[in-house]
Structure formats: C-alpha cells, structure tokens
Amino acid sequence: MGRALFLAATLLASAAQAQPAVIELSQVCPPGFEQDAGDACHLRSLYQQYSSLEQRGVGGLKTALPPYRDGFTAQQIDLGRHLFFDPVLSGDQSLSCGSCHHPKLGFSDGRARSQGIHGEDAGRAAPSLWNMAFMDKLFWDARASTLEEQVAGPLYSPKEMGSTPQQVLERINASGEYRRLFAQAYPQLGGKDVGLEQIYAAIAAFESSLVSLNSRYDQYAHGYAEALNAKEIEGLNVFRSFVARCAECHTPPLFTNQQVAVIGVPEPEGRAFDPGAGAVFDNPTWRGGFKVPSLRNIARTAPYMHSGTFASLREASEFYTLGRGHALPAEEKDKLTLHWHIWEPKLTDEELDRLVDFMQTLTDETFTPAIPAQVPSGLTPLGREPEALRATLAQQGEQ
Questions:
Q1: Can you tell me the distance from the alpha carbon of 142 to that of 149, in angstroms, rounded to the nearest whole number?
Q2: Neighbours of 386 (CB within 10 A)
Q3: How far is CA 181 from the centre of its chain?
Q4: pTM for the whole structure
Q5: Helix 176-185 with 74-84: angle, nearest 10 deg
Q6: What's the CATH code, domain 216-362?
Q7: What stretch(es) of the chain map to CATH 1.10.760.10?
Q8: CA–CA–CA angle 377, 41, 222 (5° rounding)
C-alpha cells in the first residue's frame, strides 16, 4: 500500500509539473512609472522638471519632454507584454512582434531589412521601439500617428506577420486564458468577446512603457559632470555644434525632431530606390524622405538607416560629411529635395570618432522588460529568433 501511495503521489507531482503555471498579470506599474489610486501608471522623469519655453535651443542639455502617452493600468501593460511576445498573432504562428523588435537588440532585429512570415523581405529595417510613447509619427515613412494604428500595420502586412483581423480575433477569443486576462485588464468587456480595439490598446500600453531616459548622457545633462569622459564630451560638443548640426534633427532629449527628412541615403546595390514618405503622402518634396530616427540606444541597433545601408555608427556618421547627394544614383539627384542641413561639414576622422564615442553614451536599457516565461496561447514566447540575435548572443557568451 505504501509503495502504491508513493507511486500515485509521484505521478500526481509529475502531472502538476507538466501543467503550465497560471499566468497572473502584474499589479504593479513598470519601473519609471508611478501608480495612482485608480491603478493608472504615470511616467516619472527628471525631464518633466524642465520647461521647453525656458530652455530654448536645439543643442540644450535640459530640454523638456514633448507630450506623451501614459495612464494605462499595470494589468493592461502586462497583458500587452504577453501579446507582444506571443506568436499567436502571426499568420502561421511562427513569429511575434518581438521577433523583429527584440529587447536584446535595442528593440530592433539586427538585420538590414526585417524578415517576415515565410522568410519574406519586409523591405525596411525594423525601427527601435524605445520611447514610442513620445512619438507622433511612426514607421520610417511616418504613415501612422498613434500607437494603435502602428500596431495594426505589421499584423496584417503580407510581408511581415501575415495575419488578418478575423484570424486574430478568432485565436484570441478561442483562448480561455486570453479571455480571462482581457477580462482582468478590461473589465468593461463584461464577458463579451475581445475586440481588436482592446488588442491594439494592450500592445500600445506595453509599447508606451518602453522608456529609456537614464543613459550616461542624461546623467551628464542633469548635472553629473563625471558621467562622461573627455572624449565623449568632445563628441557631444561636435554633435551640438553649428558645423556638424546633428542636434538640429536629432534633438535632445529624444534625439529626434520627429520630422521627415530627405538626406540622400542610397539603397543597397540591386534594390530599387525607396520613395519613402513621398509616396505615402503624395508629396514630391518628400521623395526619398524618412522620419528622423531617435538615437537612443543607437549602439544596439546596427545596421543603420531605413534599409540597413551602413554597418556601423562610424560609417553612418561619415555619410553626412561627404557632401550633398554624393551617394545618390544619377537618375535620382534631380528628383530629390535634399534637406538643407545636409551639406559638407568636412568633419575630421577624429571628430567622427568622437561623435561615435558620444552616441554610445545614449545607451540605457535599465528598464528593459523581461520576455515572459510563457504566453497565454501556450506557444513558445517570441517566435523565430533572428539570426543576428543568435550571432550576437553567441559572441557575448549568453544563452
């Protein structure tokens, strides 16, 4: 009898271990946010102490933050985190949002151009998602103006996640686990089916929590003079100068002015010229124009530009000093209205090196969220790992 009881207990224990743990949404706001009495999470940053009206100048250290999205609940943010890393949203369930926006690659994917469903070339590099809460223009071609609108784009693109609205709704509502979690995060559903509105909002809530504002540069900007070394300060001075003029487009504290700029970046050999925002907005003066990307965590997101043209920060920096339109094919030179900041600063090799030194001080991954150990669909979180990630982790000796 004793042996039988022992075997039964062992089998029950094994069965219990085989069952996935019940997912519970976080009741606490992510780091960097303060939770109010209604469970809403509100951003807290030293930059909120500064006034843009009092601190004018594109190169200024203490410039205020633009308007931003916050006020989501802790449960909504955490539900969005699980959705973000769940391959259930893609057409063939092979990749998630996190496949092209991996937290260990600056929320990009390390590719010149992202690889979507069935190995499709998505056409452009995956932009970083850090500080999305502050952005009023999204995607390289600035075609979206809200986080929710941005979420829908890759979901239904046949070259990216390859899903459909009906497919997304069917899978989410067929999951008892997802229905339970959505009921917690959105009690107003009242037992009704989950809608696309809640799915987009949850992912937007998670993306709004990806805040990076405490790099060594930020510590220097807030008054800690020893945060940067001499070479990095030299690089900052080049960056802010009216010779290099980097800060006029990559304006602190977000290191983007969120405008569309035509700078004359060439396409990789063999690829057709990408008209960018010019085609989206039917604006000939924006032909070849793309949104000025933030330089936050830029050291983590190589290769650079919309099509991964430059492999390193040094190459990308040098591009700006080689003359207006120097890299454009002949047939495009007369069609493009190059941004007036793109001129010939004639920076020296040493100045370019110092610029790179400075840009590396913009790395802050303190509040990088964890990839969930499991997701409500039961699939493996994240989806297909980018080859670039595997190579990077192998070099770092990480698992």
A1: 11
A2: 24
A3: 25
A4: 0.91
A5: 150
A6: 1.10.760.10
A7: 33-56+67-211+367-396, 216-362
A8: 120
